[in-house]
Design a protein that fits this description.
single chain, alpha+beta, seven-stranded mixed beta sheet, 7 strands, elongated
C-alpha cells in the first residue's frame, strides 16, 4: 500500500504469540512486550511518510512505562493499539496497549495484557532536541485521553 502523509489514530496491528517468545514458565517473557510495542510503531511508519510528519528530526524513546496486567501465552492473538496522549515543546507521549483478542481459553479474550506510556523526544544528531513539528502536533487531543485502550483503533490487515 502507498505511504501517505496522513496518520490515522488510534492505530493498531495484530500479531500471534510465537514459541520463541516464551520463558521457562510458558508465558511471554516480559522483555518481548517492548519489542511488540516497537513493532507496532514501525508498522505505523509504513503507512505514513515519517519525513512528512517529522521533517529532519527523529523521534527517539526517552521513557517507557509498562503496566503488565495479564499474561500472554503461545497461540494467543493480540492487538497492539497506539494513540496520541500529550504533546509538549520537544517531546510527546503515545499510549499503547496490548489486548488478547484470541485465545484457547475464551475467558481470556478481551483481557488487556499491557498498557504503556511511551515518551519520545524529537532529536537530530547535529542539533540535539528539536520542537515537535506542527505536522505531527496536530494529531494530539487538547486533553490526555489516558491509558485505556481506544475502542476504535484502525487495524491493519
Amino acid at each position: 500500500s502507498p505511504v501517505s502523509a496522513t496518520l490515522v489514530f488510534p492505530f493498531a496491528v495484530e500479531i500471534d504469540v510465537r514459541g520463541y517468545e516464551l520463558d521457562p514458565w510458558q508465558h511471554v517473557n516480559n522483555a518481548i512486550y517492548l519489542s511488540w510495542l516497537e513493532h507496532a510503531r514501525w508498522e505505523m511508519s509504513k503507512v505514513v511518510s515519517m519525513e512528512a510528519l517529522f521533517g529532519g528530526c527523529m523521534p527517539v524513546v526517552r521513557r517507557a512505562e509498562l503496566d503488565y496486567r495479564a499474561q500472554t501465552l503461545l497461540g494467543d492473538r493480540l492487538r497492539i493499539a497506539t494513540w496520541p496522549r500529550a504533546v509538549g515543546t520537544t517531546s510527546f507521549v503515545l499510549g499503547q496497549c496490548i489486548q488478547v483478542i484470541g485465545a484457547t481459553d475464551a475467558r481470556r479474550v478481551g483481557q488487556v495484557a499491557l498498557v504503556a506510556k511511551m515518551v519520545f523526544a524529537c532529536w537530530r544528531p547535529e542539533a540535539g532536541k528539536l520542537p515537535v513539528p506542527e505536522s505531527f502536533r496536530r494529531y494530539f487531543p487538547p486533553v490526555d485521553p489516558g491509558d485505556e485502550p481506544p475502542p476504535d483503533a484502525v487495524v491493519l490487515a
